Amino acid sequence: MVEPLEVEAVFRRCPSEHFDFALTSELAPLDMIEGQPRARDALTLGTAIRHDGFNLYVLGPPDHGLQGLVTRFLERQAASAPPPPDLCYRYNFDDPSVPLLLRLPPGLGRQLRGDIERLIEELSAAIPAVFESDEYQNRLHELEQAMGERQRDAVEAVRREAREHDILLLSTPSGFTFAPADAEGEMLSPDAYQQLDQAERERIERTVEILQTKLAQAIRQLPRLAKTLREQVGALNEEMLRDAIDAPLEELEARYDAQEAVLAHFIAIREALLFHVESFREDDPEIPPEAVFSRFRLNLLVDSADASGAPVILLDLPSHQHLVGRIEHQVQNGTLLTDFMLIRPGALHHANGGYLVLDVRGLLSQPGAWETLKRVLSTGRIRTESLEQAYGLISTLSLEPEPVPLDVKVVLLGDRLLYYLLCEHDPDFLELFKVQADMDDTLDRTPAGLEDYARMVARLATEADLRPLTAEGVAAVIERAGRLADDQQRLTARHRDLHDLLVEADHWAEAAGEAAIDRAAVERTVAEQRRRADRIRERSHEQILRGTLMIATDGRRIGQVNGLTVMRLTDHGFGQPIRITATARPGHGQVVDIEREAKLGGPIHAKAVMILSRWLAGRYAPDAPMSLSASLAFEQSYGGVEGDSASVAEACALVSAIARVPLDQRFAVTGSINQYGEVQAVGGVNEKIEGFFAVCRARGELEGRAVILPEANVEHLMLDAEVREAVADGRFRLYAIRRVEEALALLTAGEPDLDLEARVAERLASFRQAVRHRDDDGGRQDEDKGDE
């Protein structure tokens, strides 16, 4: 007979004397990731390899606190790395639609932007002053006067020649004209001209024709003279402008002589000023000076002046624009306008030269974001464009900034399911994310591991600005961590559970007036968490106590046993007993799973019933047909049934129904069976035991009650204090079994002179005989019908 478990086997205590500190404030904090060497080494490898494609995917559920763990690790790695260069955009004087990229040493972008602003401020005052100076006005007047004289001289030469031939050159509103003159130089009247002899008139006409030709030649020289004047004025303007701009520009060129791209920008500034000189002279120029100066400015996208290492950027909304940036527009007179100063950076710009951390679920939920990230990583360039431009959905003219070379390590955070789905369905995924860092759900509970866990708890308390924990408080946290892991050898690594536990424990410590978090505060937190989530459990157990749900915890029944289930609606689950019944009659070896027939049973449960039927046949009818028609059912179960943890209980109920041997209803059974009758471990064993215990205690029938569980589950036992106390007193027992026969022995104990094997064999033999008689009778009836 199997012996009940000792109380030491159902709970693994954490001795506080193991610790050599009084408060966790004395400990050096340790990050949780240090307890996960596999994930830590993967992160180290991924951050060390700078080749393309060696980006990281960190696998783990959200309650691991992946963001905090990974970000802190990356920040430590990035602290010793050089800061990234400044990223700027400048105006492209050759093609304004393609702003040019400037990559500058850290801090130089801010300095250059300030120098250019000061240059604009200086030139805004110096250039107008040059053109308003007396020197400029005098020289301009001299040029205009000299040109005016040259124009007058050309006409006067024709006038003097005409006067020598008694012809006057007259200026009229419609232009110049010639007229004959008398000896005194007065213009002849028409009558006087007609009185001249024919020869004189012909002479005058020939002379006028010659003079008109010379006048036309003189007039044709006037535009050339005007052009010459403009060239002279332009040369003067350029000379004066150079006097104003050369000194400040040469000073800046000397300061940035090592930066070729900056020098090219200064050259472009000088050329633009000389080209747009009229903008500074005219009262209403086509391009105002402010527009000219705005082209000189610098759009500083990424400023690394204050950076002490490589950047670590966590993007909580990884949309297309938030990744690659955007180009903003302004409304002017109902028209959308933009320029290079309205280019805004994205997270990839800020993370360039460092690390970008993204939540993969958020990334996949944003339209186009996943494809955008893959394209950027594949091409190695950040192209700032709208999603519509990227997919060719619009043809509106816009800016096309010069792409930014990419040097970033992308770290995706997500659960394991998404990782494997991406591996299967996206052929680019493994080419771009070659390193997986798989976070464990639990940590080893070793003596050295306890010391590290205490330091991890200290870090959590420090980060949340909580009271320190006493040694007993840490021991209570470790015991709770073992229960959350459902394992005596492991401790939970779920950041959220531990954080919430410590925050609430700090509250109860404050309410009790304690300066530190002790065991009482931790245990009260656990009790309060359970109480808040206990409404459904209480109502469910109330139905059992009132008889609405029929659960027997006393007496003996044929074909009936108490199974154990777990209901888990949130993070908190609770155990509840359920009545499992079986019937048996002569048949052709069929075991009917009523749950499956009613489409309430899942595939795993169906598999378990098939395994059970094969065990039954192999165990009790190895050499003959098993003439049996049996059924199994979960009574008063109206939801889905899944899992194989009730297969041991089903086997016991079925054997009881076949042998007509009653089973002790003071027991509850959990465990999975294989085809050889071996009992296998199941999940939720702590909740199942505590659920049955609670029902028995509420009925006042605790004495003699027991739970049968797989021996493989013993190391998973972390039962609460009330169950441990009852086990220690012998009022409640736990039996760990290896085979189904041990469960049957416990459930049928007390039956006098029982040989269960013989009883089952006898019943199955009678079933075979009944089936044979029925088949024979049916065959003779068929023959009689044939004779008729």
Features:
788 residues, alpha/beta, seven-stranded mixed sheet, 27 helices
Question: Could you tell me the number of beta strands?
Answer: 29
Strand order of the largest sheet: 22-23-21-20-25-28-29
Q: Major sheet: size, sense and barrel closure?
A: 7 strands, mixed
Distance between the termini: 62 Å
**Helicity range of the residues?**
40-55%
Helix/strand/pairing category: alpha/beta
- Radius of gyration from CA coordinates: 49 Å
Strand content: 15-25%
The number of helical runs is: 27
State mean pLDDT (0 to 100 scale): 88
Shape, per Cα inertia axes:
elongated
Low-confidence stretches: 780-788
Structural summary, described in words:
The chain is of the alpha/beta class and 788 residues long. 49% of the residues lie in helices and 16% in strands. The protein has 27 helices and 29 strands. A seven-stranded mixed β-sheet has the order 22-23-21-20-25-28-29, sandwiched between helices. The protein has a five-stranded parallel β-sheet with strand order 7-12-15-1-16. Strand 26 (672-673) and strand 27 (679-680) form a beta hairpin. Helix 22 (603-620) crosses helix 23. The chain starts with 36 loop residues before the first helix and ends with a helix. Mean pLDDT is 88; it is low at 780-788.
Write the layout of secondary structure elements.
Layout: H1 37-48, E1 56-59, H2 66-79, E2 86-90, E3 100-104, H3 108-131, H4 134-164, E4 167-172, E5 175-180, H5 190-195, H6 198-255, H7 260-275, H8 289-294, E6 298-302, E7 312-315, H9 320-324, E8 326-327, E9 330-332, E10 335-337, E11 343-344, H10 347-351, E12 355-359, H11 360-365, H12 369-379, E13 381-382, H13 387-390, E14 404-405, E15 409-414, H14 416-425, H15 429-432, E16 435-438, E17 442-444, H16 447-463, H17 471-485, E18 490-492, H18 495-511, H19 519-532, H20 535-545, E19 556-558, E20 560-568, E21 573-585, E22 590-593, H21 594-597, H22 603-620, E23 629-634, H23 647-659, E24 662-664, E25 667-669, E26 672-673, E27 679-680, H24 685-699, E28 705-710, H25 721-729, E29 732-737, H26 740-747, H27 756-787
Parallel strand pairs: 1-15, 1-16, 7-12, 12-15, 20-25, 22-23, 25-28, 28-29
Antiparallel strand pairs: 2-3, 2-6, 4-5, 8-11, 9-10, 13-14, 17-18, 19-24, 20-21, 21-23, 26-27
Helix pairs in contact: 3-6, 4-6, 6-7, 16-17, 17-19, 18-19, 22-23, 23-26
